[in-house]
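Summarise this fold before class:
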Amino acid sequence: MIKKTTLNNGIRVITERIPYASSVSIGIWVANGSRHERRESNGVAHFIEHLLFKGTDRRSSLDIAREIDSVGGVLNAFTSREYVCYYAKVLDKFLPRAVDLLTDIFLHSTFDSDEIEKERRVVLQEINMMEDTPDDLIHDLFHQHFWKGHPLGMSILGDAESVTGLSREAIIAYKDQMYRADDIIVTAAGNVTHEKLTALLEEFLQGVVPGHGRTESVPPVYERRIELVEKDLEQIHVCLGLKGVQQSHPQRYDAFIMNAILGGSMSSRLFQEVREKSGLAYSVYSYIASHADAGSLVVYAGASPENAKELLEIMLREIGRFKNEPVPADQLEAAREQLKGNLLLSLESSDNRMSRLAKNEIYFGTPLPLSEIMEGFDGVTSESILQLANEILDNSALTLVMLGRIGTPSFANSDINV
């Protein structure tokens, strides 16, 4: 059963009780991410995520690590373009201890100057590591160009210049501004009692300032861009993307199924055509990146320079098929069952249930019943996919980013159409 309570200061608490579980996953979510930063302070949300583990008034960073290890638990965090999450997973009997630990780092981190400088070096190494990993870098470059000129295009990590320029005062000011109660959601799934957790959180989180931290976001504008980035690599890495769907789009289930058919598994069209039939790439896949007001459908693969043109042609052809050919009934049904099965299997994990509660609250303001999601998948038809494809697979919004030893490209920009 899912229960929701709003604390006196506006923080939302949402739980899903799984009485047969022996663990609880709990997360504190802040509905502000890299898209809510200013360009000159890009990377500050991610930097704060790191710094909250570096010590509080009551605990050193070693104390934090030892405390979660001593109960066999997990403590971690991540930053995205639209939210940050700090989470723990522990045996149910240790939930009060996990709440004390999570809320302590969330509210009482000291932001010690020496720790900031040490962690700044860590973040700069993380940026360097991504730049040395082309199959990670290409996706960051893609989003920078696809959302060029818009906050969604800023790197989650920031860059060396912006991270180096973040002062202690700027970091604390950003946290004070953005970590406001109306933007904070606490979700928990597992063997948890809603009333007991709410009482704990009312005590621990009462000091959070009410209100919202961010201003309203402006939706991005889709434009066509071709970007060829020279880098001395053995492969050419290719990211090709078009307009996708926002999180609440009425045809999001059509988009999910279209993506599954295109490049979402080993039986997908791209995997079969690019890897199995042609042997052009080891890794090839597609994904949907959906946000509150926009989205993208992205295809990725890496191939040797002499095969890059053929790889690109296959990508464009397979995407274009959705605009011109109804999906065969057997492929549609297979993709539908694949996604429904993936969802049901994911619900065996309290981590996934906890995350699902938060994301539904952020994007829909309410839990989405499993039955409604299944009905959404069941309502997808070949005709509805064809209609959506002709709406979103628009060449005027196409972005291609290629990374590697490209030299003189063997294609013209006018050839890049689906």
